[in-house]
């Protein structure tokens, strides 16, 4: 199993997975305009990274990540790495794809200088991140109604 940057040829499958992800979260917002009007232009502008994984030639999951910066609309922790979204299609869960996607994002973020990485998981996914070294950071994001989970990539950064 491998994870690679999303490519132009992946956009249709990525868009479908993104819509499936929003449906699973039971979001009220229509994901199609969100993808077409915000996500894709920001991706093309390099404001965040996207990794995808495949199983038998089918895109099975994605991770969206960035280093928080004032240039981004979403900037919760300036200079920190943010695992914004991580999704694996239900048919492919339990195979380590989520872990591979998370590792890809973490490696990319630390290569770009992040020493603190955070995520805002839904409650049902908190245990996934805890099992991979994240801890409740004691913060709460009211915009997304989630706890903030943090992982320090360089132990000398521990406060």
Short description:
The protein is α+β, with helices and mostly antiparallel strands and 159 residues long. The protein has helices at residues 11-25, 31-44, 97-111, 126-130; strands at residues 3-5, 49-55, 58-67, 81-88, 116-119, 135-141, 146-152.
Q: Can you give a write-up of this model?
A:
With 159 residues, the chain is α+β, with helices and mostly antiparallel strands. The chain has a single domain, classed as Aminopeptidase (3-Layer(aba) Sandwich), CATH 3.40.630. It is built from four helices and seven strands. It has helices at residues 11-25, 31-44, 97-111, 126-130, and strands at residues 3-5, 49-55, 58-67, 81-88, 116-119, 135-141, 146-152. The chain has a seven-stranded mixed sheet with strand order 1-2-3-4-5-7-6, with helices on both faces. Strand 6 (135-141) and strand 7 (146-152) form a beta hairpin. The mean pLDDT is 91.
User: CATH class, anyone?
Assistant: Alpha Beta
Strand % is 25-35%
Shape: globular
Strand order of the largest sheet: 1-2-3-4-5-7-6
Q: Report the helical percentage.
A: 25-40%
Largest sheet: 7 strands, mixed
Number of domains: 1
Segments where pLDDT lies below 50 for 5+ residues? none
H/E element sequence: EHHEEEHEHEE
Number of strands: 7
**Pairing-aware structural class of the strands and helices?**
alpha+beta
Overall pLDDT metric? 91
CATH superfamily: Gcn5-related N-acetyltransferase (GNAT)
**CATH architecture name:** 3-Layer(aba) Sandwich
Report the total helices. Answer: 4
The value of Rg in angstroms is 15 Å
N-C termini distance: 35 Å
The CATH topology label is: Aminopeptidase
